[in-house]
Design goal:
heterodimer, A: mainly alpha, B: 317 residues, alpha+beta, five-stranded mixed sheet, elongated
Chain lengths: 265, 317
């Protein structure tokens, strides 16, 4: 699928996640992120990074909840509110993780207008540093295992760190060289194998836009179901329309992928 | 290399949501109106904002320092526990739950809009009207609205009025439907004389200091709720029984009334019948999505298992 469509999908899902604290929207969104990752992730070591993002998400919830201790008066409401805000961040993280496993952040770079090429490159590097590091770790571990080096998880850290850092440096240099070679940053660019905007991309883009539109509409209406009230704690309402908007975001998982997409992306 | 300079910048995309603040009436004076409805009494204050930025909580504090409004805040100053001696004065800010202070914003024509976000996140501008009403119900359709007021009615005629005396309340309550259109007009029939909670011990006590003890005593016992259930049955079937809190005290407690529909007195359960269904659908969708994800993952792993991961990665990238 076109990287622009994936970017749009990720931005829409992130927008939906950030605009609600209702667990009955956030949990389905988490499921959506998971199923899209499962259906569309690129093969390779970076596929594992999704799990790491999920773990970080859980840590976020715990940290956010633990911070409540510093409030003057601890009550159940503040704990619930903090946990839900943590959940919101966690879902945002997993959406980001899905985006990183299904699409190459550098693919977006090609789409950026020439004028914005450098900020786009910085953004792509920043976006991809976590998954690239995770991929490097798994590659190095794999190589160590192949050579029969089987050390404990924590004792092997120094042995792991050096090659991982080296891999990161190497990757950056290779990337810069290859981009220079292709004329990036000099005002002319080659058009090798341009991404096709398929019908699937249009469908996903439309679905993402629809989801954002529904959430914006709910925000403008001050829909009480978007924010779960923790003062006092009440059973959150669920608006079927917003829930449908969340579920529509899982569309990329159900659309059939072409064979070429599965291998080349 | 040119590329290197680009590494210095990091573009961060974040969807920041600006809370929707009610557009204020263009107004020369830098004051805003604050309306407090305790159920027994309605107080209006014309509060000078001063130069700095003021949120809904600051407005209450200013009303306290300028007009002597009594208040108590909780949760680090983000929640309103007590206003005009009504509400929770103890350590638990929501000790009176399901009764709590609902926050409204004036729509400029005397009606009220239930505020979607907390008072601490709302910027009050000159000419705005903020309202607080004591009652149950966690949305604009179920919470009793504040008495109708506009900025002009509060600040226009008398720049800095004393708390308005109660007698003007019955006629003020008439146009309230503009603020809460979902509420049927019969929601508050002639409740001018009725006073929530306080009505039990003597409907004539309009003194706000009295009402504090009264509400504190009466609300935990669910006597009024039976009444309310009765009324809501007559008025409109199944339409949010907590919408008419102020009818509660029209009647003195009569234990013989059927307590059947007071099944959810806590106000915590959703009043709309389809809500649990939607929530269940949401949970079911989550579980289904997770299961599908596991299935898809298995299938893909199974398909690519023969290759060694290393090989696959080499060819893949």
């Amino acid at each position: 699928m076109h990287p622009g469509a994936w970017l749009l999908w990720a931005l829409s899902a992130g927008f939906v996640a950030i605009s609600t604290t209702n667990p009955f929207y956030l949990l389905p969104l988490l499921g959506v992120a998971w199923v899209v990752h499962a259906a569309c992730h690129r093969s390779g070591p970076q596929a594992r990074s999704w799990r790491i993002f999920l773990i970080f998400g859980v840590l976020t919830i715990c940290t956010r909840t633990a911070l409540v201790v510093f409030l003057p008066d601890i009550q159940l409401g503040s704990v619930v509110e903090a946990a839900l805000e943590g959940l919101r961040l966690a879902v945002l993280l997993t959406v980001f993780g899905t985006y990183n496993t299904v699409s190459d952040p550098f693919g977006v770079l090609r789409l950026a207008p020439r004028r914005f090429h450098e900020p786009a490159l910085a953004a792509a590097l920043a976006l991809s540093i976590a998954p690239r590091t995770i991929a490097a770790v798994s590659t190095v571990r794999e190589a160590q295992r192949l050579r029969g080096i089987e050390i404990g998880r924590f004792r092997s850290l120094p042995a792991l760190a050096v090659p991982v850092l080296e891999t990161g440096m190497e990757e950056a240099v290779v990337l810069a060289e290859s981009m220079d070679a292709r004329g990036h940053g000099r005002g002319r660019r080659t058009r090798y194998r341009p991404e096709r905007w398929s019908r699937r991309s249009s469908t996903v883009a439309l679905a993402s836009a629809a989801a954002v539109a529904v959430v914006v509409w709910a925000l403008l209406r001050a829909d009480p179901s978007l924010a779960m009230s923790a003062f006092p704690i009440t059973w959150p309402r669920v608006s079927p329309v917003v829930l449908a908007a969340v579920l529509v975001l899982s569309l990329p998982a159900w659309l059939p992928q072409s064979a070429s997409e599965r291998t080349t992306t | 290399m040119k590329l290197r300079s680009s590494l210095l910048g990091v573009a961060l995309l974040a969807g920041a949501l600006a809370p929707v603040a009610a557009p204020g009436v263009a107004c020369a004076a830098s004051s805003a109106a604050l309306v407090v409805s305790t159920g027994n009494n309605d107080y209006t204050y014309c509060v000078e904002l001063g130069g700095s930025s003021v949120n809904g909580i600051d407005l209450i504090q200013r009303a306290g320092s300028q007009h002597g409004l009594q208040y108590k805040l909780g949760y680090g100053g983000r929640a309103v526990c007590m206003l005009a001696n009504v509400g929770a004065s103890g350590s638990d800010c929501f000790g009176e739950h399901p009764y709590f202070w609902g926050y409204w914003q004036g729509d400029g024509s005397g009606g009220w809009k239930w505020s979607g976000s907390g008072a601490a996140n709302i910027t009050v501008r000159a000419g705005d009207v903020n309202g607080w009403s004591w009652g149950t119900g966690d949305s604009g359709s179920s919470h009793p609205a504040t008495v109708a007021a506009t900025y002009e009615s509060v600040c226009g005629a008398t720049p800095s009025p004393e708390p308005t005396p109660p007698p003007d309340r019955p006629k003020d309550r008439g146009p309230r439907e503009t603020g809460a259109p979902e509420k049927p007009g019969g929601a508050r029939p002639g409740d001018g004389s009725s006073t929530t909670g306080a009505g039990d011990s003597g409907g004539g006590s309009q003194d706000s200091t009295d009402s504090v003890e009264d509400t504190a005593e009466d609300e935990p016992e669910h006597e009024p709720k039976e009444e309310r259930a009765e009324d809501s049955k007559e008025n409109h079937k199944g339409k949010e029984p907590r919408a008419e809190r102020s009818e509660v005290a029209v009647v003195t407690p009569s234990p013989s009334e059927t307590p059947v529909t007071s099944a959810n007195p806590a106000g915590a359960t959703a009043p709309e019948p389809e809500t649990p269904v939607a929530a269940l659908v949401a949970l079911a969708a989550t579980v289904l999505l997770a299961a599908f994800g596991v299935l898809l993952n298995r299938r893909r792993d199974g398909a690519s298992a023969p290759d060694r991961p290393m090989e696959q990665q080499r060819t893949g990238t």
